[in-house]
Structures are given as structure tokens and as C-alpha cells.
Specification:
7 helices, 18% helix, Ubiquitin-like (UB roll), Elongation Factor Tu (Ef-tu), domain 3, 18 strands, single chain, binds FE2/S2 (inorganic) cluster, five-stranded parallel sheet
């Protein structure tokens, strides 16, 4: 990751649905912004140390705008409320350069993009990209109702609108999309991309696995994960810093290291973004994040410091 931040200004702000705001962020002088790939996100620095990540949902070919969609969630940890309440047109803020933990694969013959609720945002950027490069894809947008779902008009008028399918449960007597039918017979040559609330993601991932998709063909971007906190205390030796810390029962490794003066980069603090990823030199991590794949977790050579803990009494970390 990079420490370098960009100053941007909110050029346009538009309510898309009851609680979804779309924001267009631009360089104040009208210069091009650093390029981004479909699936990328940026960190918004919202003041008082609050940093939150949001997927870019504009056309990656447009290098003048970072477009975001943010759902106001009063039960969240403050990020979305701060975005809704403080980011008015003309507001300046600092953002990170784009980073991509959710890239499109280059070898899919067909891509199935599935967005649940505000999880539609990275799928929109992916659809622009796949459409521009003439690749085969379909986009499924699932939500509760059209009144609570943003970006509908944009998707209906997009150059790829013929690939977009809407499924709002309110229009189907409360029934979910028939995902078996969507995925059936496609596991050989297709890749699935999913983003949305945790329960929705688990449903899509499980259904894809049952339909024969292998793990490498199921790409996921989690948000709003309820990560388990706390556990047994243990010791961490930060090898590069030459410092040993004790991680208390109710403390994260990141917090224990920070209290000892060691710089740790964190962002989501719920195991979804990978910002705090660190190499493990010795010891056995207890992985609690959803960022690493199951295979990567089994390797036990890296871990997230914001939420994962230790199965051994001591960890040696490369920090
Ligand atoms: Fe995002 Fe740790 S800060 S995974």
C-alpha cells in the first residue's frame, strides 16, 4: 500500500435511494486522478482518525472522477454516517490512491457479477470494464426493493444495460433470486464475482460451490463483517522493531503493537481489506479475517493484525 494521500473535492452528491448517496470526487484543479482498475476501492479519511473504504463504481476509463456509492447505516461504526452528514458538494477531503483486492481475472470466458444491495458498486465498475473490452458477462443486482437500491437508472441506461438483471425481493413476494438457475451449467468456463452483506455472500458462495465452481473461480469482496473480538492473551515479538509485546485478552495485535510505538497500518479493522497484513515468521495464527483465502490461511505465513489472534503462546512477526 502507499502512504501518499490525494486531496479531492466532492464535485457532485446525489441521493440514489432512501439511504444511498452517490458521490463524485475530483481533483480540485481538474487534473486526472491516478488510474484505477475495476474492483478497486479507496480509503476516505473522514476526520478524527476515521478511515473507511469504499469501492469505486465509475467507469475505470474516466480518469477525472472517483465515483462512490455509500449506504447510510446508523448501526455501523460511524463511517457511512460521516459520509452522509459531512461530505457535501464542495467539501475537500483526503483519500488514498486506489487499491484493488478484488480484480477481474484475465482468463474468464464468461463472468457472472452478483451484487447484493450496496455491494452492487464494484460490479458496476467491472461491468464497464468487461463491456469496453467486449467480454461476455451478466450482472445480477439483488436487493430488497427499488426504493432502497441505488444506481438503477444508471444501470438501465448503461451501454451494457442488456446484460443487467434486477431482482428485488419486494417484487417477487419476498423470494430470493433463483441462483441455482443462474449458475447451473456454467462452472466450467465462468467466474463468479460477489459483493454484499455477509449472509448474502455466504449464500452465493455456497450455491456456486454446489454448482461446481472451484474456489479460484469465486471472487468475493466482503464488507460489514461481524468479527469475533478478544480471546486468550499471548506474546508477539516484532522482529524488525526488536520489541516484544503482550497482547491482552481484550486487545488486538495492532493495538498492542501501536501502544509499544510500532507503526501499524489499519483501515477496515474488521478483517476485510488486507491493509494490516503482516508476514508471520514463527508461531501459529488464529485467522479471523475474511481477507485471506482458506488456502492462504493454511499456509500460516501471513496474518491480519487488526482481528486475528494466536493459537501459539508466541508469534514472531515481520514488523
Ligand atoms: Fe483491514 Fe485489518 S485493517 S484487514
Amino acid at each position: 500500500m502507499t502512504d501518499e494521500l490525494l486531496k479531492v473535492v466532492v464535485q457532485k452528491r446525489e441521493m440514489q435511494a432512501e439511504a444511498v448517496v452517490a458521490l463524485d470526487l475530483v481533483d480540485g484543479a481538474g487534473n486526472a486522478l491516478p488510474a484505477f482498475e475495476a474492483g478497486a476501492h479507496i480509503d476516505l479519511h473522514l476526520g478524527d482518525g476515521l478511515i473507511r473504504q469504499y469501492s469505486l463504481c465509475g467507469d475505470p476509463e474516466n480518469d477525472k472522477v472517483y465515483r462512490l456509492g455509500v449506504l447510510k447505516d446508523p448501526s455501523s461504526r460511524g463511517g457511512s454516517v460521516a459520509v452522509h452528514d459531512t461530505l457535501l458538494e464542495g467539501t475537500e477531503l483526503m483519500v488514498s490512491k486506489p487499491r484493488n483486492h478484488f480484480p477481474l481475472t484475465t482468463d474468464a470466458k464468461h463472468s457472472i457479477l452478483i451484487g447484493g444491495g450496496i455491494g452492487i458498486t464494484p460490479m458496476i465498475a467491472m461491468a464497464y470494464e468487461l463491456s469496453k473490452t467486449n467480454q461476455r458477462f451478466e450482472l445480477w443486482y439483488c436487493g430488497r426493493s427499488s426504493a432502497t437500491s441505488g444506481f438503477i437508472d444508471e444501470l438501465k441506461s448503461a451501454p451494457f444495460s442488456d446484460k443487467v438483471h434486477f431482482h428485488f425481493t419486494a417484487d417477487h413476494g419476498g423470494k430470493r433470486l433463483n441462483l441455482d438457475a443462474v449458475l447451473s451449467g456454467k462452472s466450467e468456463d465462468s467466474h463468479v464475482y460477489v459483493c454484499g452483506p455477509t449472509g448474502f455472500m455466504e449464500w452465493v458462495i455456497n450455491t456456486a460451490q454446489e454448482a461446481g465452481f472451484v474456489d479460484q473461480s469465486i471472487h468475493r469482496e466482503f464488507f460489514n463483517v461481524d468479527v469475533e473480538k478478544g480471546g486468550n492473551g499471548f506474546e508477539v515479538y516484532a522482529q524488525e522493531s526488536g520489541i516484544t509485546v503482550t497482547v491482552k485478552e481484550d486487545e488486538s495485535i495492532a493495538d498492542a503493537l501501536k501502544a509499544a510505538g510500532i507503526k501499524v497500518q489499519v483501515s477496515c479493522e474488521q478483517g476485510t481489506c488486507g491493509t494490516c497484513l503482516c508476514d508471520v515468521i514463527e508461531g501459529i495464527p488464529e485467522h479471523r479475517d475474511v481477507y485471506l483465502t482458506e488456502d492462504e490461511k493454511e499456509d500460516n505465513d501471513q496474518m491480519t493484525l487488526c482481528c486475528s489472534r494466536s493459537l501459539s503462546d508466541r508469534l514472531v512477526l515481520d514488523i
